[in-house]
Specification:
2 domains; single chain; receptor; Leu-rich_rpt; transmembrane; transmembrane helix; 3-stranded parallel sheet; 10% strand
Length: 134
């Protein structure tokens, strides 16, 4: 027996839960579960009272049926939600490029344009080399 009732769970019932074949009973009542009870599993064999108090759940063994939606429309909608459709400004790429430019010229700029910084830098490298090789 697995009693997950009144645990403030939300989302859908995971398919992995339906693959637990050793379950004699399951109770997920009075949570905030949504979506369809996974099909073709032993979950349809449990009593509907095990799922009560979850108004967003649908499908067998519950009396409320799920609305049929076109799966290609769902896939398209999910893809648009998760990914940029290419019409926006690529802020990530712009920020990475600007960060590289600022970091590169922040380090290399003084070495290129200032002889005193360049001399000090190469003197430092020479001292480090001498310390490790001697």
């Amino acid at each position: 027996m697995l009693d997950l009732s009144r645990n403030h769970l939300s989302g859908g019932i995971p398919a992995s839960l339906s693959s637990l074949h050793f379950l004699a009973s399951l109770n997920v009542a009075y949570n905030n579960l949504q979506g369809q009870v996974p099909l073709g599993t032993q979950l349809q064999g449990f009593d509907a009272t095990a799922f009560e108090g979850n108004p967003g759940l649908c499908g067998s063994p519950l009396p409320n049926k799920c609305q049929q939606m076109n799966t290609s429309d769902n896939a398209t909608k999910n893809m648009e939600d998760e990914h940029d459709n290419g019409n926006g400004i690529p802020w990530l790429h712009i920020s990475v490029a600007l960060g590289f430019i600022v970091g590169f010229w922040g380090v290399c700029g003084p070495l290129v344009f200032s002889t005193s910084w360049r001399d000090a830098y190469f003197q430092f490298l020479s001292n480090v080399k001498d310390r490790f090789l001697c």
